[in-house]
Amino acid sequence: MTYCVAMRLDAGLLFASDSRTNAGVDHIATFRKMNVFEVPGERLITLLSAGNLATTQSVVSLLRQRLAHKGVPEGEHLFNRASMYDVAELVGRTVKETVARDANAQTLGQGVDFGGNFLVGGQIRGEEPRLFHVYAQGNFIEAGQDTPYFQIGESKYGKPIIDRVVRHDTSLKEAAKCTLISFDSTIRSNLSVGLPIDMLLYRTDSFAPAAPHRITADDPYFLKLSRGWGEGLRRTFARLPDEDWFR
Amino acid sequence: MTYCVAMRLDAGLLFASDSRTNAGVDHIATFRKMNVFEVPGERLITLLSAGNLATTQSVVSLLRQRLAHKGVPEGEHLFNRASMYDVAELVGRTVKETVARDANAQTLGQGVDFGGNFLVGGQIRGEEPRLFHVYAQGNFIEAGQDTPYFQIGESKYGKPIIDRVVRHDTSLKEAAKCTLISFDSTIRSNLSVGLPIDMLLYRTDSFAPAAPHRITADDPYFLKLSRGWGEGLRRTFARLPDEDWFR
If you write DSSP's letter for every residue of B32-84 in order, what string do you get? Predict the structure, then answer.
């Protein structure tokens, strides 16, 4: 499985993904699920992916190789789409193209799910930062002020903490801490989500080169956060009032 | 959907269930999912149920009416089984009996899931308290010291907090608080789980009459707990260290 979170906050964008993939419990591997496409100063586009790894890798490979239109006429690609809406549409179309190629009459009865989900966010100069969830069917929804975040993959374990903390006006710093705690909770409860975590913070209108961080199992900050959070929970617990009928 | 939790701690047993049922989002109703069977001083058996409401209600009705063997020879029932293991086996057999009766060739193609899951726990004099998870297939597993709790239904949202707090030697009081917070988190993140919550605490070897508590939306303690927990989380957050690259 997979766990990915993306947020569109007033302060900017946040992307985070785990890196465990599995086909059954005896076929586990590590793959980066975050892909960044950027033209410094002009646009930054980040894709997080969940679902069938063959599908999601193909979508990313097709998007990437179409940026370099060697010897072929230039088609639509991530760097010539005018808006993030058009980028999301292009990703959705590439998902449909890949699934249409790979899934056919022979595979229908084999119980393989060829679907892949993407979180597509970024900023193109002239627009605000935007964030989309592209479904396995290729259609998509956009995050707004009321719901500033999307999750894909094993989303349930880590949802309550985000629901409690994150609003559109949450700072990137707070959102990053909350996201890491959401990952910590998910990793503790579900074997199919695992470290390292890739995280990218993007400040609105900065158009700075993307500097994703990779958080490994021995990352001292993540360990400190995980321990601090656990201790804080226990402290909070100890302070909560008891009820008369708790005998 | 549904959310139920049961724990087998050194101090005793804990049972909690929500009471929302739904068939689609436009058919929502309130049903008690906790059923207690007791012979004060001799045995206490509690069933929590999730899954197809017709199946789970039928199982409980059959178990209940077989206690009163009016005019028919006494068969196996909840009050004459010698151990909690035998009780779990009887519940599993009744699940299979109900599904075999209701699911047939005609219903096969209709996409109806007739399955029902039960958490079955209690104490029979001469035994320690025991807790079982009876699957929709009628087979079952027992909780132990390493994994002292089971969940059924919408279990993922509320699992991390239990994983962090509950061990076999956790007190009933702490476990009850943790369980209510687990429900609060689940209810905030998933519409298909709703108040009121039914909760029953049973102290090992007490064989006292069961006194389940119903926690409604305006329960002052639950509101206090929910608010206190939210505030505690935010306080814990504020204290957690920042990382250099959170810019």
Answer: --EEEEEETTTEEEEEEEEE-HHHHHHHHHHHHHTTS--SS-----TTT-SSH
